[in-house]
Amino acid sequence: MKEPLDAPLKHKRPMRFLKERIVPMKKDHIDWLREQLAQFEKEFAQAEAVVQRLQPTISNLKGAIEALVGSSDYNGTKSIKKKNATPFKIRTLKRNPDFESSSTIAAAKQILDASSKPIHHDDLTKAIFQIANDSDFARAKRALTSQLSAGAHRHHFKALGNGLYERAEG
Questions:
Q1: Looking at the domain assignment, is residue 7 inside a domain?
Q2: 159 and 149 in contact (C-beta within 8 Å)?
Q3: Phi/psi at 155 (nearest 5 deg)?
Q4: Distance in angstroms (rounded) separating the CA atoms of residues 85 and 79
């Protein structure tokens, strides 16, 4: 005959078994849970960093698409525009008149060849581009930095580190 569900449990093994086997297993399980928590918190922090890094790019691309498509959004469906909304405008960087017709690398090479000492990339940026505000400076600096890296790799000039460049020898 079966015992009723509300009957007290009868231990078939002594309490020593519980202390020796179950308690360490519980501690191991708690340690495993803590490791899992730490791993997922780390992955979550990395995912948040990726979201923050990509958010400006996504906003910029949406604005560019809307500017090109007009009154419809990037999915092709009509969107409601605000009456006082300013349209997204693609801004191009203007060059100083001395370098309008030359490539960025050629302009940097020309400036570095004329100088007897190394020049910082901030100074090269100001010399090559017409800078109206901090935003334009940041855009121009990013554009120039990648070009300077490519020019140094092709031995047009030398990268000295910490943003300094000098003319190539020879």
A1: no
A2: yes
A3: 65, 30
A4: 13
